[in-house]
Fold Phosphoacetylglucosamine mutase.
Amino acid sequence: MTSSLSTDLIRLLSDQHPKPSNIHFQYGTAGFRTLGSTLDSVLFRVGIIAALRSKKLDGRTIGVMVTASHNPEEDNGVKLVDPRGEMLEAAWEGHSTTISNAPTTDALIEALESLVQTAKIDLSKPANVVYARDTRPSGPALVSALADGFKAMNATARNAGVVTTPILHYFVKCVNTKGTKYSYGDDSEEGYYQKLTTSYKKLVAGKAAQPALVVDCANGVGALAGKQLSEHLGDTLQLVLENTSITKPGALNNACGADYVKVSQKLPPSLVNVLKPGQRACSLDGDADRLIYFYLDDRGAFHMLDGDKIAALVAAFIIELVKVAGLDDQIKVGVVQTAYANGASTKYLQERLPVKCVPTGVKHLHHAAERYNVGVYFEANGHGTVLFSQPTLDTLAEYQPSTPAQSRAVEHLVSLTELINQTVGDALSDMLLVEVVLSHKSYSGEEWNSLYVDLPNRLAKVSVPDRNAFKTEDAERRLVSPPGLQARIDELVNRYQGGRSFVRPSGTEDVVRVYAEAALRTQADELAMRVAGLVYDEAGGDPSSRPKEFL
Ligand code: NG1
Ligand code: ZN
């Protein structure tokens, strides 16, 4: 092992992946994400950064996922996964941004040398990486640029192929815990499906089989994973996989998938002749880490069960099991949400357990959830999971139940710790979790939906010249900049019954997002439109694209 960078090799390869001069890249809440055709140099450099991060962590394996999730097919992106299967440490987001923007090969080498110095990276350490991509057409070329980055650092890199984002996170945690007492599972796709379906089968043993579940795979990688999952589930749960055209140009996330359903609050048109009244259905997003449920009632009206409804369903179920097990003194359950959580869900949950609101971004939710014994975190958009702390896992392993009912409840809790992905939100794992609860409670979609009634809400986005001019406080619920804008929003909100609205810059797109809710549908839409108008005027956008209406 050498103890300096192989600058000749880096130079040779970097010259094949020049940075476009007119683009500024940013490692945002979900890594780098923009048009796939502009990302070649970023992928090469991320390959180098992943290797450096691994060396910094004594050769522990780092994950790299190439995906743009729910975003349009022509977009792509890349994010790094830390050894425990979690999001990259915040300081390295900054390093990644700096390195991705070095204008030339010389500047890149200089930036890398400076990172090695400041982060005190021992270059003689090994570098280990596991990487994967989703089904986007730009994926193969980007993965090859990434592989050049690994080559430039002489890193040992394993190509995990085309898998969901949560499967890649699972691999990272498995590889890094292999052979320890915290071993998370077998680092193969088979290991993942076995782990999920074995625990699912234990949890629903003896329960009546549920009617078939329709799964909208967003024409993405979830179609491949859904098929494998379905085979492993056998008769225990019948999945009807829809929107599985992973090679059809333009199909990915197009009028289907979790983001389409959540934002438009509509049934994907492709399911109109598929879904029967009362039947349960769910949508995954393009990399299968988000999940939204829905159903049609007897009159054919569409009802959506989003991340907030999933959190409410799951938290109540876990609390009940903890209580039946006789562990309610030792195991406390809490929920983490963001400002996008429906006000009705927050009220419902706050009446039952501790609830914390944090800024948008999985890392904020995940870290806040880690502070509870059992932390349930879900974004309204359907991304989320449930974390069990190590002391809680130890409590469950050591507990001596005194009745058969207690013993069953503890077994179920242990199975849940196996079923639920502990690294990141996972649509397939969450789907099985929801199915377990529905099966235990004998709930239809309608009964689940009646836990609380959502306040009508609307999410909108406004394109502005500089989204960084928008700064927030109080878990993004209030604007501090541009000055004076928050007061004008407050003044508008006060005119609407049950009104709430907030504005924040997106961390993944070059837009400012506007959220509004109110007691009535028309009022929520109107409030969102008027706040979007305020933002637009403030930011000085082009009058022809001023927000006029939604729907
Ligand atoms: P931004 O673009 O920062 O709003 C979006 C989602 C987040 C999260 C990230 C990562 C909304 C309103 N925002 O972030 O919740 O999922 O993407 O994919 O859904
Ligand atoms: Zn996603």
In short: The mean pLDDT is 96. The CA atoms of residues 346 and 355 lie 8 Å apart.
